[in-house]
Amino acid sequence: MTGATSDPPAGPAAHRAEPPAEESLAELFWAVARRLRHQSRRTLEPWDVNPGHARALAVLTRHGAMRLSALAEHLHIAPRSTTEVVDGLEERGLVARRPDPADRRATLVAPTEEGTRVGAAIRSARTTEAERFFGHLSPADHADLSRILRTLRD
């Protein structure tokens, strides 16, 4: 019997249904984080970069050339992981390494012209992605969620 009240809802509205009472706050948070992560990966596909690459490129386009150790601090990752991220970006022509003029033993990493262009395109795509994801929230809910997330982050 189609349309019976026991049929589950279909389409996007089904995802907005009230969660079961037994669903914990942590489970809800991780479910939203998973959706954001999947959406972010899809958004980044045209540039063949992963979220870690995108974060590093964003830091470098925002702050300019820096040592790998400084980039690791900005990203809150181990220096070895930073090297792997930079290697991936360098292979794609998005960043370049060069000697640090203040200390020739050290290396700076900086976005290339292509990296700056791609970084701007990613920033624009992510802004659109965020507007689509959070756009159905009221201004008050948006402000509350921002406040709550900042509190949890700090």
Account of the 3D structure:
The protein has 154 residues and is mainly alpha-helical. Helix content is 59%, strand content 11%. It has a 3-stranded antiparallel beta sheet. A hairpin with a 2-residue loop joins strand 2 and strand 3. Helix 1 crosses helix 5 and helix 2 packs across helix 4. It starts with 24 loop residues before the first helix and ends with a helix. Residues 1-21 are annotated as: Disordered. One of its GO terms (biological process) is response to stress.
Strand content: 5-15%
| Tally of helical segments | 6
- CATH class label: Mainly Alpha
Fourth-tier CATH superfamily name: Winged helix-like DNA-binding domain superfamily/Winged helix DNA-binding domain
Kindly state the number of beta strands: 3
Into how many domains do the coordinates divide? 1
What is the approximate shape?
elongated
Report the span from N to C terminus. Answer: 52 Å
- Round the mean pLDDT to the nearest integer and report it: 88
| Helix share, percent | 55-70%
- What's the CATH topology label? Arc Repressor Mutant, subunit A
- CATH architecture classification name: Orthogonal Bundle
Radius of gyration: 20 Å
- Unreliable stretches: 1-14
Task: Tell me the structural class.
Answer: mainly alpha
Region (Disordered): 1-21
GO biological process, one term: response to stress
Keywords: DNA-binding
InterPro entries: HTH_MarR-typ, MarR/SlyA-like, WH-like_DNA-bd_sf, WH_DNA-bd_sf
Short summary of the structure?
By secondary structure, the protein is mostly helical. The protein is built from 6 helices and 3 strands. Helix content is 59%, strand content 11%.
